[in-house]
Amino acid sequence: MANLEASAPPSDFIRDVVRADLAAGKYPFPVTRFPPEPNGYLHIGHAKSICLNFGIAREFGGVCNLRFDDTNPTKEDVEYVESIITDVKWLIRGWADHCLGLKPRGEVPSRKGRDFYLQAVTGRVDDAGYEPFFASDYFEALYEFAVELIRRGKAYVCDHTAEEVDRMRGAPDKVGQPSRWRDRSVEENLDLFARMKAGEFPDGARTLRAKIDMASPNVWMRDPVLYRIRHAEHHHTGNRWCIYPTYDFAHCLSDYIEGVTHSICTLEFEVHRPLYDWILENLDLPRPLPHQYEFARLNLTYTVMSKRKLMALVRDGIVRGWDDPRMPTISGLRRRGVTPEALRHFAYNIGITKYNSLTDVAVLEHAIRDDLNKRALRRLAVLRPLKLVITNLPDDHTEEILAVNNPEDPAAGTRPVVFGNHLYIEQDDFMENPPPKYYRLRPGGEVRLKYAYIIRCDEVVKDAAGRVVELRCTADLGSKTGGPTANRKVKGTIHWVNARTAVPVECRLYDRLFTVPEPDATGDFKSVINPNSLEVVTALCEPALAAARPEERYQFERLGYFVLDPDSQPGRLVFNRTITLKDSWAKIEPKNQPGVTQAE
Ligand code: ATP
Ligand code: MG
User: Fold this and answer.
1) Could you tell me whether strands 553-556 and 377-379 are parallel, antiparallel, or unpaired per DSSP bridges?
2) How far apart are CA 23 and CA 15, in angstroms?
3) What is the mean pLDDT of residues 454-461?
4) How many A from CA of 73 to the centre of ligand 2?
5) Is residue 95 a contact partner of residue 56, using CB atoms and an 8 Å limit?
6) Distance CA 4, CA 337 (A)
């Protein structure tokens, strides 16, 4: 396959910063982090962020910490923690797993632990002694940092409600109104904050706010909230806390505690950056400090990306689960048969910029085809069978043909395919009254059967309802490879399976989940769901597929790439079509309609 690992590492403005920082001796090596909130499954947008953060660690000899940004007790769940660990490990498998920053199980980094963590704590992917980082492990340290800010006169306890705080914040063109409690004494603030922590006040009664500048042109700097009261059980810390830090307070300090050097996030956090720096600067922490950099998030056509919307698809039963192969989740793409290499390749191809844009899903599909073309084993299968009998061969005729497993990879070898006189071909590969330029089978017409003979259709057998049920054909017995008429030209080649040995399997054929390129732009993404995004057929396939293995990728010739689904049982295999061989959406033009294209 196009070797991502061997090709020159990508270059972009964030990698330029890292390179310059290392050259200037600012850090011995970069420490990045991937900080998902465990409130849903990871999607392909997260894959872009994972590839960037782990890619930098990999290319510059650094570490990327997997950290759960779990400071919000109410929306999070351990189910998501487990799925995120699985997805991250899968995506970086064999590529950057040595850069995966984990911590010794059970150990909690403290604010003093930073030097230790700067020495690259990396666990091995399957090492049971290691676990990811959790921002909630830093609640104690964060609390102490908050107390420190109060002591320095940089934070105060405010008794306004959330609505009042919002209203008094003003707007970019209108200065904010200071809180009535802005000038509380340090002693009073320390006392109130301790009592907030002790659980003396109900939810929403008080907040801890940074004392910055109510007239700042950046509204995020107008005394932002650092802590809220929330009497809620947390999936990681249980009932230990009833005050929780905000994203802004927790994030920069979690980065600091872990010794992160480059904290990379999406563009909407650009306005938060002054606050990120303010908190670290005002605690007067030892240098070097982490710095935040922003890049444009991934948006894809025919896709919704936010976890909230993906959750709605699952909840409303529009898809079968988070890992439904139609979902843009990492687990959905994995189940569909997409490889980590294809996703990494896609992430590298789209690059890192500072401008939000919409990426055509065809770019992803191209990366998937490119990857599978190089690795997939070729197999014969028929999705919608039509019986075909060869009349000039004896009824018990069998003939073994050696077929190449993968023309892109000689090491994949060959396999025997058994030809006989009772076959199935694809219904689409025969037309009784074809339009011009139809190069497949027609009454009186000729095609080549892949790996075998040229045949001519002599007779069309129909049932009482007039449906075509069988084709009776004669084979040109000299037309096989090496035969006297082997080089005779016919325009079409079609695939087939041997009726006597074919194995029935379930095939799940997927299409895009949405009918329009920008489902979000409609204002109601559920109104543009493609009702035909899943078709299930019973296909007949060559017996070699009965031994299909979960990690193996197959090309069913002329039909697309397929992978075994976990729903498979012995004797009842289920295949997902990962993708067709060509972009089927280009077929909308009449000249390319199914049944009219030239068979390859
Ligand atoms: P969503 O809005 O889909 O729920 P999120 O941003 O809330 O996503 P987090 O769990 O907070 O999800 O994200 C973890 C990391 O992944 C963050 O650093 C975030 O910036 C990044 N990320 C999320 N979505 C995208 C995307 N579409 N493209 C690139 N990076 C993304
Ligand atoms: Mg989020």
Assistant:
1) parallel
2) 12
3) 98
4) 13
5) no
6) 19
pLDDT tens digits, residue range 472-482?
999 999 999 88
d(Cα 291, Cα 263) in Å, to the nearest integer? 6
Centre of ligand 2 from the C-alpha of residue 39, in Å: 8
The answer to whether residues 133 and 66 touch, using CB atoms and an 8 Å cutoff, is: yes
The pair of three-digit structure tokens given for residue 444, joined into one six-digit string? 């009186």
Tell me the β-bridge partners of 540.
382, 504
Q: For the beta carbon of residue 432, count every other beta carbon within 10 angstroms.
A: 11
- Lining ligand 1 with CB less than 6 A are 35-37, 45-46, 48-49, 265-266, 297-298, 305-307
Q: DSSP character for 222?
A: S
| Catalytic, out of 184, 197, 211, 307 | 307
Which residue do the tokens 């009833």 mark?
Answer: 242
Structure-block tokens of residue 212: 């910055």
Output the CA torsion sign for 560, 561, 565, 570: positive
Active site residue 37: yes
Q: How confident is the model at residue 77 (pLDDT cuts 50, 70, 90)?
A: confident
Query: Do residues 265 and 222 make contact, with C-beta atoms less than 8 angstroms apart?
Result: no
State the DSSP code for 183.
T
Give me the sign of the Cα torsion angle 333, 334, 340, 341: negative
* Residue recorded with tokens 């056509």: 301
Residue 46 Cα, ligand 1 centroid: separation in angstroms?
5
At residue 385, what is the residue type? P
- 183-195 CB burial, b ≥16 within 10 A, e <16: ebeeeebeebbee
Sketch out the chain's domains with CATH numbers: 153-241 (3.90.800.10), 299-379+504-600 (2.40.240.10), 381-495 (2.40.240.10)
Q: Which atom of ligand 1 is nearest to the CA of 264?
A: 18
pLDDT tens profile 273-286: 999 999 999 999 98
Measure the CA–CA gap between 447 and 428, rounded to whole angstroms: 14
Q: How far apart are CA 293 and CA 267, in angstroms?
A: 9
pLDDT digits (tens, 9 = 90+) for 533-543: 999 999 999 99
* Residue from 19, 93, 154, 297 carrying the catalytic annotation: 297
End-to-end CA separation in angstroms for the chain: 23
User: If residue 475 lies in a helix (H) or strand (E), which one and from where to where?
Assistant: strand 468-476
pLDDT digits 0-9 by tens, 481-519? 889 999 999 999 999 999 999 999 999 999 999 999 999
pTM above 0.90, yes or no: yes
- The residues, any chain, with a CB within 8 Å of residue 595's CB and separated by 6 or more, are 428, 431, 434, 438
For residues 273, 91, 573, 569, the Cα torsion angle rounded to the nearest 10 degrees is -90
Confidence check: pLDDT of 589 > 50: no
Q: How far apart are CA 75 and CA 69, in angstroms?
A: 12
Q: Which position among 19, 26, 37, 518 bears the catalytic label?
A: 37
